[in-house]
Request: fold
Amino acid sequence: MMKIEMPLAVRKIINRLEESGYEAYAVGGCIRDSVMKKVPSDWDICTSSLPEETLKSLGAENIIKNGMKHGTVTVRVDGENYEITTFRTDGDYLDNRHPESVTFVRDLREDLARRDFTMNALAYSEKRGMQDYFDGLTDIKNGIVRCVGSPDRRFGEDALRILRALRFASVLGFEIEKKTAKSIHKNACLLQNISVERVMSEFVKILCGKNAEKVLLEYGDVVGEILPEVRKMIGFEQRNPHHIYDVWTHTVKVIAGVKPEKTMRLSALFHDMGKPSAFKLDEKGVGHFKGHPDISEKIAESELKRLKSDNKTIKDVCKLVKYHDVRPYTDKSIRRYIANVGMDMFEDMLELKRADTMAQSPAYFEETIRHIDFLEKMYRAEKNKNNDFTLKTLKINGEDMKNMGITDGRMIGYCLNSILLKVIDGELENEREILLKYAEEIKKSIG
Ligand code: ATP
Ligand code: MG
Reply:
């Protein structure tokens, strides 16, 4: 018999409910993860007791009652919350999201039948062992995401399950079973009924999964439901010798080529999204995308706002997208480039540029990567000199301006910024005496 290690608190809760004459199990994702030898993110418990009965069995301490209507009682043990939910079936879904009602039942099988995928329809207790009515263990062993019951019906009830399926495929490296996959393509449009917050939370996990490349290529249509611009990218041939992939395939390869972290993966996703609208064929029949980073940046900004991303993410993604295709060659322009991107984000910028290059034609890898290496060398040199190209690291500040008799705030800003540009351009050294002398000159010139 398979044995699962459970936290002490979970065992105690289950035992307490069993002692009171009910059935209780750890259920869902925590059992899936344990079977896969991963550490579960949370432990959910299901039980045959009604919420009031659960309360009575556990005593009133550390109990949060706010999910009672849906059958959930939350207990807090040693700083962790555990949700204990009464076996239930869901009533009809009229909006592809919420059941109209829930019905409490006394039979575990019915509770497991309402769960999304076979791998999540597992329950376990020490006393009763593994409960696997839908062959979830076999599907886990074979790495398969399969709906419990009819996929069309299950996705119709709750369209978020479409993204959960893609998430498990991406994060766990599972295959989506054929009928489930077919139904996902068929029902993708139902995602329009799901709130952007829930969509975005699953979508970011899909982007950051180890199998993101395969999932995004196979389910571009689903991504197109979340971001309509993606529909234009799929199959958009670039007709340019630098590129061997269409815009979407290229984009997906860049996503897979950067570290699995939200800002980087989103930047990769958006970096070329403006390409379809920037596309122009020249007289030789070669495709060009002049100005596409600015268009991509605008799309990133408005779409991330619509998807209720936080401001810091929007700002960072926009910066990486806007500057991803800048290729400066002179010392001066490279330093200005570093200053524009910001010292704090320049390593991410380099990473995006490398991934972007590696997803283009191999004929140009070497040359382009050598250039990126050169940018990195310049960046490291500036970093070693503690230059971060912001007003903060200038060896003079607003106080000095005031002491020189420049009192107008705007004028102080103007002086400091023109001095900063000179420093970035390498025309002035960031030494206090030198900068003070130069400030005197500016003061004279503006009278
Ligand atoms: P993780 O916690 O790692 O994100 P999980 O599968 O545990 O993944 P939870 O949101 O914690 O996801 O849900 C716990 C369990 O509840 C799931 O394993 C599944 O059995 C069930 N479940 C969650 N969301 C749904 C859904 N939309 N439709 C059907 N069952 C669901
Ligand atoms: Mg969970």
Observations:
- The chain has a mean pLDDT of 95.
- The radius of gyration is 29 Å.
